[in-house]
Known about the structure:
- The chain has 2 domains: 1-33, no CATH class; 35-258, Rossmann fold.
- It is an alpha/beta fold.
- The longest helix is centred in the first third of the chain and has 16 residues, at 2-17.
- The chain is built from 11 helices and 6 strands.
- It has a 4-stranded parallel beta sheet. Strands 3-4 form a two-stranded antiparallel ribbon.
Amino acid sequence: MAGHLLTAVDRTLSLALGLRCAVCAAPLETVAAGAACPACWSAVPRYAPPWCARCGVPLPPWRRTSLALGCCAWCRRAPGYISRLRAAGPYDGALRGAIHALKYGRRPSVAGPLGALMRHAGAEILAEADAVVPVPLHPWRAWRRGFNQADLLARRLGLPVWPLLRRIRATPPQAALGAGARRRNVRGAFALGPLRQWPAALAWAHAFHPLEPVRNRLRGASVVLVDDVCTTGATLEACAQVLRDAGAREIRGLTAARALPGVATRRQ
Length: 268
């Protein structure tokens, strides 16, 4: 009885608010559906193997046997700090619309369905990890948005959340930058943060908080960096370097989507 009542209330709220699917603009039957309708959620493309064993970039099937350890050419040249990286799917279609609704449409309810996609796609990444670490926003941007989308996603992955990083330098958006410019843009932009997370309005308090407890927690730990979208991996690598320098044993990465211009993906 209670379940039917909640469903009725949910549908009534959705009609009253006039919520529409962020992808196809169809009316949403329930608030709990998040930003997209069931048809669009089911149409979200997923990455399927073969993919690079390290960064998760999709590979043509015929190249799998020609690559050492199944890694792409970029990962063989520049291994980086992240041991393995995966994304739920390409930054396109319903997945792109859902992420935009979360970040720019201020619809945090979409974090639930996105987190479910990430748990499924990143099961091997999350397995036996000690915790997830969300990529931080600059305090000013977090205050303007009202939340950090990476933190919302991290809290849906079923592992302890360690918000141990802070963004100490405001940087221009990465979207319009090339690979080299992205790396330069985020170089030195992140640092360790205290175990206690101060509100964005009191971000200055971070500088006066001891960091030794953070280093003690990270020492020898296996952690998973979490963000909404990965393109070149520059932001994740910059965060991973801070964690590795603080003593983390292994850093993996998991994102909701991967932006891969010019790379064909397969539907699963």
